[in-house]
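agent> Task received from the user: take the single chain below, predict its 3D structure, and emit C-alpha coordinates. No templates, no multimer pairing.
agent> Plan: (1) validate residues, (2) run structure prediction, (3) serialize to C-alpha coordinates, (4) report one or two observations.
agent> Step 1 OK, no nonstandard residues flagged.
tool_call: predict_structure(input=
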Amino acid sequence: MDELTHFDESGASRMVDVSGKQSTLRTARASGWVKMEPATLSLVMDRRLAKGDVLEVARLAGIMAAKRTGELIPLCHPLGLDSVEIALSPVAPDALLIEAIVKMHGRTGVEMEALTAVSIAALTVYDMCKAVDRNLVIGPIQLDEKTGGGRGHFRRPAAAIGGLSHGARETGECGSDPS
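)
tool_result: status=success, residues=179
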Protein backbone atom coordinates (compact mmCIF):
# COMPACT_ATOMS: atom_id res chain seq x y z
CA MET A 1 0.00 0.00 0.00
CA ASP A 2 1.23 3.49 -0.85
CA GLU A 3 1.98 6.03 1.85
CA LEU A 4 -0.52 8.76 2.71
CA THR A 5 0.50 11.82 0.70
CA HIS A 6 -1.22 14.55 2.71
CA PHE A 7 1.21 14.33 5.64
CA ASP A 8 4.88 15.28 5.78
CA GLU A 9 7.63 13.33 7.57
CA SER A 10 6.67 14.80 10.94
CA GLY A 11 2.95 14.02 10.50
CA ALA A 12 1.84 17.58 9.74
CA SER A 13 -0.93 18.09 7.18
CA ARG A 14 0.08 19.46 3.80
CA MET A 15 -1.24 20.07 0.32
CA VAL A 16 0.57 17.72 -2.06
CA ASP A 17 3.10 19.48 -4.30
CA VAL A 18 2.09 18.68 -7.88
CA SER A 19 4.34 21.26 -9.54
CA GLY A 20 6.70 18.59 -10.89
CA LYS A 21 3.98 16.39 -12.35
CA GLN A 22 3.16 16.15 -16.04
CA SER A 23 -0.08 17.78 -17.16
CA THR A 24 -2.31 15.06 -18.66
CA LEU A 25 -5.99 14.47 -19.34
CA ARG A 26 -7.53 13.41 -16.03
CA THR A 27 -10.97 11.83 -15.83
CA ALA A 28 -13.02 10.39 -13.00
CA ARG A 29 -16.39 8.66 -12.90
CA ALA A 30 -18.25 8.25 -9.62
CA SER A 31 -21.68 6.95 -8.73
CA GLY A 32 -24.11 6.71 -5.87
CA TRP A 33 -27.75 6.06 -5.35
CA VAL A 34 -30.70 7.29 -3.42
CA LYS A 35 -33.21 4.69 -2.29
CA MET A 36 -36.77 5.89 -1.77
CA GLU A 37 -40.37 4.75 -1.75
CA PRO A 38 -41.59 3.82 -5.26
CA ALA A 39 -44.29 6.53 -5.05
CA THR A 40 -41.58 9.13 -4.34
CA LEU A 41 -39.49 8.04 -7.30
CA SER A 42 -42.60 8.26 -9.46
CA LEU A 43 -43.12 11.87 -8.31
CA VAL A 44 -39.45 12.65 -9.07
CA MET A 45 -39.50 11.07 -12.53
CA ASP A 46 -42.83 12.70 -13.43
CA ARG A 47 -41.50 16.04 -12.12
CA ARG A 48 -44.50 16.44 -9.81
CA LEU A 49 -42.87 17.41 -6.50
CA ALA A 50 -43.94 20.75 -5.06
CA LYS A 51 -40.33 21.94 -4.68
CA GLY A 52 -39.73 21.68 -8.44
CA ASP A 53 -37.77 19.55 -10.88
CA VAL A 54 -35.65 17.40 -8.56
CA LEU A 55 -33.54 15.95 -11.38
CA GLU A 56 -32.47 19.31 -12.82
CA VAL A 57 -31.89 20.94 -9.43
CA ALA A 58 -29.76 17.95 -8.31
CA ARG A 59 -27.82 18.02 -11.60
CA LEU A 60 -27.02 21.71 -11.16
CA ALA A 61 -26.10 21.21 -7.49
CA GLY A 62 -23.70 18.40 -8.45
CA ILE A 63 -22.03 20.52 -11.13
CA MET A 64 -21.69 23.47 -8.76
CA ALA A 65 -20.26 21.23 -6.03
CA ALA A 66 -17.64 19.73 -8.35
CA LYS A 67 -16.45 23.24 -9.18
CA ARG A 68 -16.16 24.12 -5.46
CA THR A 69 -14.51 20.92 -4.17
CA GLY A 70 -11.26 22.71 -3.33
CA GLU A 71 -13.21 24.99 -0.98
CA LEU A 72 -15.06 22.13 0.71
CA ILE A 73 -12.24 19.62 1.31
CA PRO A 74 -9.27 21.25 3.05
CA LEU A 75 -6.33 19.70 1.17
CA CYS A 76 -7.85 19.46 -2.32
CA HIS A 77 -6.33 21.68 -4.98
CA PRO A 78 -8.66 24.30 -6.47
CA LEU A 79 -9.08 23.16 -10.08
CA GLY A 80 -10.29 24.65 -13.34
CA LEU A 81 -12.41 21.76 -14.56
CA ASP A 82 -12.93 21.23 -18.29
CA SER A 83 -16.18 19.25 -18.02
CA VAL A 84 -18.69 17.97 -15.46
CA GLU A 85 -21.57 15.71 -16.51
CA ILE A 86 -24.23 14.40 -14.14
CA ALA A 87 -26.74 11.69 -15.03
CA LEU A 88 -29.68 10.73 -12.82
CA SER A 89 -31.64 7.63 -13.77
CA PRO A 90 -34.03 5.20 -12.09
CA VAL A 91 -32.50 1.72 -11.75
CA ALA A 92 -35.30 0.08 -9.80
CA PRO A 93 -38.81 1.08 -8.70
CA ASP A 94 -37.26 2.51 -5.54
CA ALA A 95 -33.73 3.61 -6.51
CA LEU A 96 -32.23 6.56 -8.36
CA LEU A 97 -28.66 6.19 -9.67
CA ILE A 98 -26.50 9.32 -9.81
CA GLU A 99 -23.36 9.27 -11.97
CA ALA A 100 -20.79 12.03 -12.44
CA ILE A 101 -18.00 12.26 -15.01
CA VAL A 102 -15.39 14.96 -14.51
CA LYS A 103 -12.57 15.85 -16.95
CA MET A 104 -9.61 18.19 -16.83
CA HIS A 105 -6.14 18.61 -18.29
CA GLY A 106 -3.91 19.05 -15.27
CA ARG A 107 -1.37 17.77 -12.75
CA THR A 108 -3.74 16.22 -10.23
CA GLY A 109 -6.70 13.90 -10.41
CA VAL A 110 -10.38 14.80 -10.34
CA GLU A 111 -11.67 11.90 -8.22
CA MET A 112 -12.71 14.13 -5.34
CA GLU A 113 -14.62 16.41 -7.71
CA ALA A 114 -16.59 13.47 -9.14
CA LEU A 115 -17.31 12.09 -5.65
CA THR A 116 -18.34 15.53 -4.39
CA ALA A 117 -20.65 16.00 -7.38
CA VAL A 118 -22.44 12.72 -6.66
CA SER A 119 -22.62 13.40 -2.93
CA ILE A 120 -24.16 16.85 -3.27
CA ALA A 121 -26.55 15.73 -6.02
CA ALA A 122 -27.72 12.92 -3.71
CA LEU A 123 -28.12 15.32 -0.78
CA THR A 124 -30.14 17.63 -3.02
CA VAL A 125 -32.47 14.77 -3.98
CA TYR A 126 -32.81 13.97 -0.27
CA ASP A 127 -33.58 17.60 0.61
CA MET A 128 -36.20 17.96 -2.10
CA CYS A 129 -37.92 14.64 -1.29
CA LYS A 130 -37.78 14.53 2.52
CA ALA A 131 -41.19 16.19 2.93
CA VAL A 132 -42.91 13.26 1.18
CA ASP A 133 -40.59 10.37 2.14
CA ARG A 134 -38.94 9.86 5.52
CA ASN A 135 -37.32 6.55 4.46
CA LEU A 136 -34.76 8.01 2.04
CA VAL A 137 -31.33 6.35 2.10
CA ILE A 138 -28.19 7.63 0.37
CA GLY A 139 -25.37 5.32 -0.66
CA PRO A 140 -23.08 3.80 -1.40
CA ILE A 141 -21.12 6.56 -3.12
CA GLN A 142 -17.93 5.42 -4.82
CA LEU A 143 -15.27 6.06 -7.44
CA ASP A 144 -15.94 3.78 -10.40
CA GLU A 145 -13.12 4.76 -12.77
CA LYS A 146 -10.23 7.18 -13.16
CA THR A 147 -7.70 7.82 -15.89
CA GLY A 148 -4.57 9.94 -16.21
CA GLY A 149 -1.68 10.45 -13.88
CA GLY A 150 1.25 8.36 -12.77
CA ARG A 151 -0.70 5.56 -11.11
CA GLY A 152 -2.57 4.75 -14.30
CA HIS A 153 -6.08 3.59 -15.03
CA PHE A 154 -8.39 2.38 -12.27
CA ARG A 155 -11.73 0.68 -12.94
CA ARG A 156 -13.95 -0.83 -10.27
CA PRO A 157 -15.23 -4.29 -11.24
CA ALA A 158 -18.58 -4.01 -13.04
CA ALA A 159 -20.33 -6.13 -10.40
CA ALA A 160 -19.52 -3.50 -7.74
CA ILE A 161 -20.37 -0.30 -9.61
CA GLY A 162 -22.95 1.95 -8.01
CA GLY A 163 -23.69 -0.53 -5.24
CA LEU A 164 -25.80 -2.43 -7.73
CA SER A 165 -25.62 -6.11 -8.44
CA HIS A 166 -24.27 -7.25 -11.81
CA GLY A 167 -26.77 -6.54 -14.53
CA ALA A 168 -28.85 -4.22 -12.33
CA ARG A 169 -29.10 -1.57 -15.01
CA GLU A 170 -30.71 -4.10 -17.32
CA THR A 171 -32.96 -5.76 -14.74
CA GLY A 172 -33.58 -2.86 -12.35
CA GLU A 173 -32.63 -4.98 -9.32
CA CYS A 174 -30.58 -3.39 -6.56
CA GLY A 175 -27.78 -5.22 -4.83
CA SER A 176 -27.31 -5.10 -1.08
CA ASP A 177 -29.86 -2.93 0.68
CA PRO A 178 -28.01 0.00 2.30
CA SER A 179 -30.67 0.46 4.99
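agent> Step 4: summary for the user.
The helical segments are 38-45, 54-67, 69-72, 111-129, 168-171.
agent> Done.
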